[in-house]
Amino acid sequence: MPIASKHATALRYRAVDIGQAELRYQHRLDGSWLLGSSEPLGPYPARLFDCLLQGAASHPQRTLVARRGADGQWQHISYADMLQRARAIGQALRDRGLSPQQPLLILSGNDLEHLQLAMGAMLAGVPYCPVSPAYSLLANNPDKLAHIIAKLTPGLVYASDGNAYARAILQVVPAELELVLASGEVPGRRCSRFASLLDTEPRDIDQQAANVTADDIAKFLFTSGSTKLPKAVPCTHRMLCSNQQMLRQTMPFFGSEPPVLVDWLPWNHTFGGSHNVGIALYNGGSYYIDDGKPTERDFAATLANLREISPTVYFNVPKGWEMLTEALEEDAALRDSFFARVKLFFFAGAGLSQAAWDRLERVSEQHCGERIRIMAGLGMTETSPSCTFATGSLMMAGYVGQPAPGVEVKLVPSDGKLEARFRGPHVMGGYWRDAELTAAAFDEDGFYCSGDALRFVNPEEPALGLMFDGRITEDFKLSSGTFVSVGPLRARIISDGAPYVQDAVITGLNRDDIGVMIFPRLDQCARLAALPANTPAATVLASDAVQAFFGCLLQQLNRGVTGSATRIARLCLLDEPPSIDHGEITDKGSINQRAVLARRSQAVEALYLEQHPLQVRPVPSAH
C-alpha cells in the first residue's frame, strides 16, 4: 500500500522534533479562505549577521563553512574567522562607497569567497546580488546579465575566475566598474584581487554594522525569468530572519542540535542561498559546500562528499533524490555515512514523484530499520522563501501542509482553482525599481499573489492541510471549453514514467485534445535500449525498447480515463534538451511550460499532424 494512504504515526520513523501547530481557517462569503497557524511567530534577530556575531562569541572555533580545496582536503572557515574576514571586506566595500543604489554583484557559484563577500557586504549595509553563473558561462545571449546590471547599477563586480567570466564581463559590464577577481584575468580591464579586500584594516565597520536595521536590504535575488526578463527581489534582514524563525519553529531540532548540511543548491536561488545557508547560520550549524550536482558528470563528487560528511538534514531537488536513492541501494559505505545522523529529508524546486518517494523510503527502512521523515513545502523568491510546510501526519507526494507560524494565507477562487496568496514579515515589499510589477503582484489586502494553486487534501476536513495544484497560468482550455489542469497531469506523467522521464510539457490550448511532449532522461533511456552512452539522442529515442516503454506509458496514463480533460491523445519525445538561453529551464532545473511551447511551436504542430519524428504510439500491453 503506498505511503499516500497512510499516516506517519502508523509507521516507524526516526525521532525528530517537528512543530505540531494546528491550522486555523475561515471560509469567507466571497468563496475565499483565510488560513494561518495557531502558533505565533517568536522573536528573531534584527539582522542576519547578528547570528554571525553571536556564533563568533559563543562557538568561535566551530566550522561555519567548508569546501574542498585543489588538494582534495576540506578548507574550513570558523565563525570567528568568518567575522574577522567579513569586517575587513565590509570596510573595503564601505571605503568604495557601495550602497543600495550601487550594490555588490557576485558572478560566482558557491564558494568560500562568495560567502565571505556576502557576510562583509551585510556588515557594511551593502546589498549583494548573486547572479546565476549560467547567465555568464552557459548562455550565448547576454541579455539577462545585461538586464540585471542595468536594473541594479552595481558599484563593484566580483568574479571567481576572470578567465571563465571574461567573455560575459567584456560584453555587458561597463568598463568603469571595478572588477574584483579571485583568480584569472579579464583582458584590457583593471582588476583588483579578492585577497586585497582581506588586507583592509577595519576602522568604522563595527559602527556601520550597528546602524543597519531590520528593513535594510541584505541582498537582491532575481527570479528565474523563464517567461520574461528576471525580476529583482529585495530581501531585507527582516524577511530573511523571520523566515528562519519560521523554519526553526517548524523544525525545532535545528535549534537543539546545530545542523550539518552538505549542499550543492545554487546560492543565486532562494532555496540554496536563503533557505539552506540561512539554516546553518541562524542555528549555529556547519555548511559543507558540495561541488557536485545531480548530473551524470558531477554526481560522483556529491557521493564522495556524503561518504565523508554525515548530514543531520539533507536537501535536494527531486532529480538529486532519485540519483542518490539509486546510489544508496548499491553503496554500503555511502549508506553508513549518509544515514548515520540524518533526521530529515527535504525536497523543493519541483514535486518528488510518489514512485521516487516510495523507493527512498524502502532503502531507508532496509538500512536503518526505520524511515526518515520526508518533508516538503511551498515557497518562492518573493517570500524568502518558505510559506507552508508538510508538518501534519500526512506524508505523500504533492502535500505541502499548512502555513508556517507568522504566515497568513489567502486562497482565492480562480478558474476553478484556488490561488495561494501570502502575507507576513517574510514577504517582499515590492520589486526593485519596478512600480508597475509591484502593483500587479499584490491584491487589495496586501497579499502577494503567487500564481500557485493549492487545494485541500479533503475539503470536508480543511485541518488536514493543503496539496499543490499546479500553476494558475499553466492551465488552459481545449477547443470544447474543457479546462485542463496541467500540474496534476504533469506530476502523474513524471511519476508513472520514472526513471525515464525528466519532465513533461502539456499541449492542447484551443485544440481538440491533449498532447504531451516529453523531455526524456537520455542516460536512462540509453540503458533501457542497451546502447552506449554516447549514442545520438534521436537514435536512442527511436529504439524499439524506448518506443515500447513510452507506448505502454501512454496506454497506462489513459487507463480508466473517461474525459478529454485528462485523456492524452498524443505523445512525442524531444531529442533536444531544454534551453537555458531561451528560458525553457532554469539552472536549478525547473521547466517553464509556456516558454517551451512558444519556442517549439513547430514541434507542437507536427505532434497534432502526427508527423513528429519521435511520435509515440500506444501499445495495449502493460510494461
Describe this structure in a few short sentences:
With 623 residues, the chain is α/β, with parallel strands linked by helices.
Q: What key attributes describe this structure?
A:
29 strands, Rossmann fold, alpha/beta, nine-stranded antiparallel β-sheet, GMP Synthetase, Chain A, domain 3, 34% helix, globular, disordered N terminus, five-stranded parallel β-sheet, 623 residues, 3 domains
Question: Can you characterise this structure?
Answer:
This protein is an alpha/beta fold and about 625 residues long. It folds into three domains: about 5-45 and about 250-470, Rossmann fold, CATH 3.40.50.12780; about 80-210, Rossmann fold; about 475-615, ANL, C-terminal domain (GMP Synthetase, Chain A, domain 3, 2-Layer Sandwich), CATH 3.30.300. The chain is about 35% helix and about 25% strand. It has 22 helices and 29 strands. The strands form seven sheets. The chain has a nine-stranded antiparallel sheet with strand order 1-2-20-21-22-23-19-18-17. The chain has a five-stranded parallel sheet with strand order 6-5-7-8-9, with helices on both faces. A four-stranded mixed sheet has the order 4-3-13-12. Strand 15, helix 15 and strand 16 (about 375) form a beta-alpha-beta unit. The longest helix is centred in the N-terminal third of the chain and has 17 residues, at about 80-95. It is globular, with a radius of gyration of 24 Å. The model is unreliable at about 1-10 (pLDDT under 50).
